[in-house]
Design goal:
8 strands; 266 residues; alpha/beta; two-stranded antiparallel ribbon; globular
Amino acid sequence: MGNYPIESSVAAKSKDAKNILPKYKTVEVLGVPVGVFTRAELTAMFLRILESQQCGWISYVNVHTINLVYSLDWFKKYLRDSILTYCDGQGVRVGAALLGKRIRERIVFSDWIYDVCAIADQTGSGIYLLGAEDIVLEKAKLTLLKFYPSLKISGSHHGYFTFQEVPSIVKLINHSGADILIVGMGMPKQEKWILETLINYNRDLLLTQVLVLTLSRVQKKDARLGWGKLVSNGCSGSCKSQEDYGKGIWWEIVCFCGFLLEIFLI
């Protein structure tokens, strides 16, 4: 995927959504803007965006995110066009500190999703889940409904689909009446899908009035893990094995070493 249109209609809408928010501080970590706010402040801004019915995306930033900026031309622009970017990893906080900057709090989406669901429940907003396998999505739904029985889950779809199936999936999401789309297919696959869907398809296939959130994961190669953490937060059964944990830890170490090298070379 090459560069996407800088002044696309979607990017413009994302900027409109930014304009309704109160001024908040950001810090630049290797050229990537990261919001400096607490989880409670992020939740308040999320509510404000949702009530404004603006569409766009909210992104997380961890070490893997910043490493991707240096290998993918379009990724940095994607992050800058996000309505909000928040810190998802302690590695980013450490890197910011080494650069003389302070990020107040790490916000993990598998925890923050409960605040998102509380807001959705409070406002009657529908949530659509996209990614992982159907069995994992069903467990995730049970977990969320356990805490929020009246939560409106407008629908879900697994993340193992072909390019040819995308138009029908977009139509499913649009017809579901969802206000919030949570995508968990692994970075950067999920971000690429968001851009291609929001920008490159015909107008009648665009996601309409949907606020998109992306799910962070533990390990690059298995998109089940992020959903698995959500499932294990509220259910006795987890889809993560001991081997998965080991792979995830080694991947985090590799990413963090590359990240530190970039900091010390600037």
